[in-house]
Amino acid sequence: MACNKLTAALAAGVGAAALSGCAAFAPPEKKAAAVQINEDPYPSTYARYPGIPTLIRHATIFDGVGGQLQGDVLIADGVVKAVEPNLMVQDGTQVIDGTGKFVTPGIIDVHSHLGDYPSPGVDSLSDGNEATGPVRPEVWAEHSVWPQDPGFSRALMNGGVTTLQILPGSANLFGGRSVVLKNVPARTAQGMKFPGAPYGLKMACGENPKRVYGSKGNMPQTRMGNIAMTRQTWAKAQEYKRKWDKYAEEGGDVPDRDLAMDTLKGVLEGKILVHNHCYRADEMANMIDMSKEFGYHIAAFHHAVEAYKIADLLRENDICAAMWSDWYGFKMESYDAVKENIPLVYNAGACAIVHSDDPNGIQRLNQEAAKALADGERAGIPNLSEAIAWTWLSSNPAKALGIFDKTGSLAPGKMADVVLWNGDPFSIYARPERVWIDGALMYDANDPRRRPVSDFELGQPGEGDVK
Amino acid sequence: MIRALIAALLVATAVPAAAETIAIVNGNVATGDGSEPIQGGTVVIRDGRIVDAGQGARVPADARVVDANGKWVTPGIVAGFSRLGLADVDLGADGADDTSASDGPFSAAIDVAPAINPLYTPIAVNRADGVTRAFVAPSAAKSIFAGQGAVIDTGADMDPVMRARAFQFVELGETGADDAGGSRASAHVLFRNALREARELMRYSEPVRSARGQPDERERPVVRNPNESRLYGADARRSDDVLLTRFDAAALVPVLQGRQYLLVHVERASDILQVIDLAREFPSLKIVLVGASEGWLVASDIVRSGIPVIASAVNDLPATFEQLAATQSNVGRMREAGVKVSIGMIDDNDTRQLFSERQYAGNLVALTKLPGATGVSWGEALRLITSAPAEAIGLGGEIGSLEPGRRADVVIWSGDPLDPRSAAESVFIDGVQQPLETHQTKLLDRYRHLPRGELPEAYRH
Fold first, then answer.
1. What does the alpha-carbon distance between residue A79 and residue A82 come to, in Å, rounded to a whole number?
2. Cβ A153 vs Cβ A184: under 8 Å
């Protein structure tokens, strides 16, 4: 991160979009503070793998921002070079006939627990919830991510997922920091970290925190307890930020360092994006008021089973909703699910996202979008299309993650995170045929050597199988 | 007297009052027997049963004719394994979940039939999506034996149970090990001991009829009345060293006699082989494997055993140590080897999402175009979620296909039913057209438009 102070983003009331402008707004420093907090102590070591210039011709293309065209996609040097009806073939460029096939931006899953709740799901590897206290913003999901989770490879090969956010679980009101990963296998979590992606903060309202702690006789035991504890924590964070801001301005004694408050300070400064697990309409409204009370912005409500009831509020407050197509009834706060939730949120002019929260569901997010699209069309919701529905899978999650300037669409210059599907990805019968990440071919259905196999699976029955 | 009454009730409920004669014409008809769809097909329903299906089917003069031009017509989906009707909400809704009884004294004796609530939302939600029948199993709690499951229909009436006590459900894999105190070895001893205790009580039960002129009860296994035997009388003595309650041991007598199916949940290849060994050792057991994520590794052994399998369709993660070899090709490979395979929702996350079965089946068709994978044909995929599970527990003559004589569970779909973009437009169960309205569709109607009206949303109904 280039700048330590960020008043601009907060004032603008938006998240990542304003981040790039922060340096310009930073006032000149009067006195250099002796101690500065390192905001990136576990930096990304991800480096793109080599790729060869590739031209996919005569394909049907969803550009990820609502456009559809028939034509060619050129990727080279790790980025999308061009998307046009008819491109010239250059020497040294691999040409793929995309006739009858589809090209899309890679799918971005804004809600995954791969790595922190990996397969196999044994206690030894269960690292998603630091359920020892309801306020745990000091924990970072990346420190739980096991890069050998075999689930990453399934998400790539069956799901066409190229980027994913790994979140802490929802036992806590403040679950901790999330991390955004490139779906490229590595020895370390740092090796998968999406370069330049902002951190997220996982928050939760509703049943989970009150159940986990209430059942132990602790606070929170009620939804009002949830809100009270969350507000109290924000008030503390504001105080913490004031101390550090004062120190940065005036020097003097170094304030005590509090890792939990560091994260919340980052949110109040607009550097860390809030991802809020919340199901019910009334609770989302409470969380929106809370964000205004303490001066932060919610990037996305996750699960948001009742988003359709307050889609207008989401639009007015520029908050995305990350949803399933048809999960329902697995807990009380998911009782009012409707299959048209996603298209209804879109129709209200709010930002709709298809998410998984599931190591199986992440393999079929295109099918989730297809169901939501079909249900929306059947309900008579206007202006829907497959191209629009792909925004739920790539550009909208990219926006919620603050990485839309880098990926999430096929705009020239963006990371070449691209999937070639062997048919219309909204059809049940289509599968990813090839997946590129930053222009490197990471999966090829026709080449067993272009198929990742995690350390865990080596020597096991079925190693290297098609899965 | 009581028996006669029960028999009369069975007859009375077999033919719903509202059944009419219906001819569904011009549809893309798939019968569920593995064959591909036939264009311009007709399905004729009378008295709650299929009369005929296919291109040449004659339309009776008195039939209500339903035009299915451009639509697909199939048997209703048969959910091969579920908890449907046992819970309205899974978590944190006290009183609305009867899937397991972790604090109760009984195991094998548990019978889910009285717990089924046909008015629960998941029944309506799945009915509206073309699921017409479901196998409903209890969840194991303190014992490897979960209890007796039922086959239900999803009809909008108060008579959901088609066959009570259709099967006993037992856990012999990882869950079984847990329930047995910590190891598979313990689970197997418990299993053998349970059969020993049942065998002891079996001496006091009525003999299984198999004489000439009498239908062999082992061929139509059904336990009509859990109290039918004399196993509770003063003479029915037991050893001193028993672990099971009398009710639990008695409940296993029909299993041992082969009058009740035994659904055995295992995933691991070696566990599957152990179950096949048990089948050899106790040849009267009518075993059906449930789960079998590693079945493809021992497919030829399963074929030789003749044991049917109800598998998860698309499990491909080493989610547990008992499914390290999981792959979406499992079902296709087992089928190709000749295993009698079908699909169920074994994963508890899925047990209320039975409408996803057709999506999963469609995924198996997609695998046919993936190099190295083994998928199934379209017709076979439909069979996996209709007639195949029905046949696995001896109900193939009743449900799961459009063959003449079957119960008229018929769905008219807006398009290809294996593509989840298609919706069920008309659903018939036992020949009765079903309402497709649900809690969810009513919420959609209420909140489709958000602008403030003259009255609050609560007045829109």
1. 9
2. no
Q: Give contacts of B348 with chain A, Cβ < 8 Å.
A: none
A contact residues 176-215, partner B, Cβ 8 Å cutoff: 207, 211
Q: At what angle do helices A281-294 and A223-250 cross, to 10 degrees?
A: 20
Domains of chain A, residue spans:
106-411
In single-letter form, the type of residue at position B107 comes to: S
* Domains of chain B by residue range: 1-76+401-461, 77-399
Q: Are B267 and B174 spatial neighbours (Cβ–Cβ below 8 Å)?
A: yes
Which residues does chain A have within 8 Å of residue B91's beta carbon, measured at their own beta carbons? 207, 330-332
Q: Could you report the per-residue pLDDT of B274-291, keeping only the tens digit for each?
A: 999 999 999 999 999 999
SS3 A244: helix
- With CB atoms and an 8 Å threshold, state whether B420 touches A374: yes
Show which of residues 259-298 on chain A sit within 8 Å of chain B, judged by CB atoms: none
Q: Cβ separation of A428 and B90 shorter than 8 Å?
A: no
Closest partner residue to B320 (CB to CB) among A121, A211, A363 is A121
CATH T-level topology, domain B1-76+401-461: Urease, subunit C; domain 1 (2.30.40)
> Which CATH superfamily does the domain covering B77-399 fall into?
Metal-dependent hydrolases (3.20.20.140)
Nearest Cα to Cα of residue A273 among A205, A203, A198: A198
B184-202 vs B269-281: helix axis angle to the nearest 10?
Answer: 20
**Separation of alpha carbons B118 and B124, rounded Å:** 8
Name the residue among B393, B99, B140, B80 with its Cα closest to residue B260: B393
Alpha-helix runs per DSSP H in B238-347: 246-251, 253-257, 269-281, 299-305, 330-337
> How far is the CA of A355 from the CAs of A185, A388, B47, in angstroms?
21, 16, 46
Select the residue of B328, B414, B443 nearest A467 (Cβ to Cβ): B328
ipTM of the assembly? 0.93
Q: Which residue of A has its CA nearest to B355?
A: A326
Q: Which residues of B touch A211 (CB under 8 A)?
A: 92
pLDDT digit string (tens) for A290-331? 999 999 999 999 999 999 999 999 999 999 999 999 999 999
How far is C-alpha B137 from the geometric centre of its chain's CA atoms? 8
Q: Which residues have CB under 8 Å from A163's CB, separation 6+?
A: A106, A108, A109, A180, A181, A182, A183, A194, A397, A398, A401, A403, A407, A417
Asked if A245 reaches chain B (Cβ–Cβ under 8 Å), the answer is no
Q: Does position B7 have pLDDT exceeding 60, yes or no?
A: no
Q: What is the DSSP string of B254-284?
A: HHHHTSSEEEEEE-SHHHHHHHHHHHHHSTT
Q: Mind giving me the DSSP string for A16-65?
A: GGGGGGHHHHPPPPSS--S----S-SS-----PPP---EEEEEEEEE-SS
* Overall size of chain A counted in residues: 467
A106-411: CATH class:
alpha beta
